[in-house]
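Hi Y.,

Following your request, here is the sequence exactly as I used it, all 345 residues.
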Amino acid sequence: MSANRRSIGKALDHLKSWEGFLLVLLLVIVLINSLRSPFYLSIGNQVNLFSLSIEKIIVALAMAFVIINAEIDLSVASMMGLAACVLGWLHLQGVPFPLAILIGLAVGVLGGAFNGFWITRLGLPSLVVTLAMLIGYRGLARVFVEDRSIGDFPEWFDALGQQPLIGPLTLAMIIFFVLVIVAIAVLHFSGFGRYVFVIGNNREVARYSGVRVKRVKMILFMTSGLVAALAGLLFAARLGSVRGDIALGFELDIITMVLLGGVSIFGGSGSIYGVLLSILIVLNLRNGMLLANMTGHLQTGVIGILLILSVLIPNLARHAREQWDRRQAAIAVIGISKGGELAGK
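Below is the corresponding structure, written out as tokens. Let me know if you'd prefer a different format.
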């Protein structure tokens, strides 16, 4: 009986956590959507739900590491566009396509290293640096393709982005599930993951503890650039062409997925599990809004509100918890003082 009570207690503790709240919210959204459309829970719709946003959720995994480390990368969507446009431009120049893919990925690594240099070596805020590069990388992408739409990619490349590879899963979906496993292993079960959390909690304490803070941050920004470039190339394969505005505005959904997942905007806390739940919430919410014939601008407004709430609610909860702890501590002090007075009498 006691074992059952402990199990029930643990289950209730999980439900009280942010991840538990997200799980309940996800179930409510799924229930509403399934009542709205009989085709919602079909395999085809669920695969389509993922495939339409697969590039965003791939980048969200890397973004989780960056924000837990108390930084942010606003340039990821622009880097997606730049890598895709470099691929298209190189294809027009007659560069062998496999080499063009490698160069596109290298652009992501170099872009991430460029961001990391200004942040780690010169101490500039990541918000300022990556906001500038959001504009800079997007402008550079437009330089490569101008106002053209570049396509006519090799058939095998388009097939990788558009055709199922294993069952109903495309290459991008397979890459996402592999990256989920890697992200969980690295963030929650490795020394590097502990460094990410420690630096996010307190950079100075981490530095005095012997953690190579600059190296960890540089690795994170280079990884963010690489993953963004990979997502951009996958997006190009899915669309079959590239333009200068490819992936424009994707950073809103990406950051919302991470913050809604319980990752603190101030760094030092969060989990891949929460991010996965928030990804499912955003995808299902967008799918439900499509079923309700809501316009794209209205959908963006809803996601924006969700972003604000994802930052506001955890902070309000933390403030309320701190107030409660102070009140309990005060009550305990009063109780001790009264006990001392009674003992003296």
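The CA atoms of residues 220 and 303 lie 26 Å apart.

Thanks again,
Q.
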